[in-house]
Amino acid sequence: MITSRIVDCVEYDDDEFVHQHMGYFKTGYTSHTTCGGITYTFKFSMPKSNTCEPSVGIFLGAEILSSVRPKQEFWMDFCAVVKAAQPDAYLCGEVFGLNPAWVGPDKPFDGLMNYFFGTCSLGFLGGGMELQQEQAIGGDFYVEPLDADALGASLEKMLRAYDFTSGGTEAGNANFLHMNCIDSHDTARALHMLRGSSKLLALNVLFQCTMPGAPMVYYGNEVGVTGGRDPETRRAFPWHTPETWDLELFEAYKRAIALRKKIPALRNGGWQRCRLIDKDTMCEPADAFAFIRFCLTSDGTEANSGPSVAIVVLNSSSTKDMRTFDVEVPSNVAQAMLSLEGVTNLKDLWGGGESYTLEGDADSQGIVRNVSVCKYSAAVCALE
User: Which of 121, 124, 145, 215 has the fewest CB atoms within 10 Å distance of its CB?
Assistant: First the structure.
């Protein structure tokens, strides 16, 4: 099994040829030759594979990284071979940035490691912490502080880019097939970028678990493992020192995952942004964000699950211990909820457990009043 990174190259031991023809090498990736072959950086034990040779694909193992280095034609052939052998196989590519050219109909991958979501999440739920963004990897994973409007625009751009259907349902919508990640072995750890704030890390994880796509947990994050760029980001899991684990953070991970399992809309539902009004200022806040996930028809609803709704309010501020918001639900979703019996009574399953009611009529958008959210926390208001 070949588990090294795969690079689109030809195995020559001529450095001059390499430097003339292998222009894809980026800063930090140095070619080296040994024993007639090209290796990954200076690791003689990690030979680069000659993906120009079709037979190489036969021997490739399950761990195939750095998807953009072999040309897309290679991955199309690889996809055809895999799907022929196992039609329901899932193929995920490690492609940074917003790259719909790699997924969808007649494309090589079912989903991507969605680093784009990670930059959005960290940029909003950490911008106020003066992120150590120099510890990201640059390029398509450069984390910039985002306010609520910038976050909303980025998420809507992402969701449109990967939706290859007209109705936005799960079938044909790659957003539901991504691995949403906020960090990995190729970036600094999220806790490090958030300057050690476990509360903000927990909020990022809740955001992962309430968005379309599968939340990806990088090992050790759940107990507070931290670290900057390589090699710190690859620290071993502290199995032998459980006394060092952040158990409060661990519980937050378990709660967020359990909530996703409990509410079908968080896994399969539609997504729309909600307008927020801060009750103290009566203005739209720049440091809080809300959206609604919903399954209100048979389309996208899991078998026998019935209607499912969750309104998520994220508070990235620490200026007040408690904030109160009115949440305006888009009219199309509000009217569908108001037309169904028992789909207007909501309960906060993440914060304090308060109950709320969707108000509205046939001619207006809906509103949920006085939703309370603690600092660096959230409310997830779902059907009771």
Answer: 145
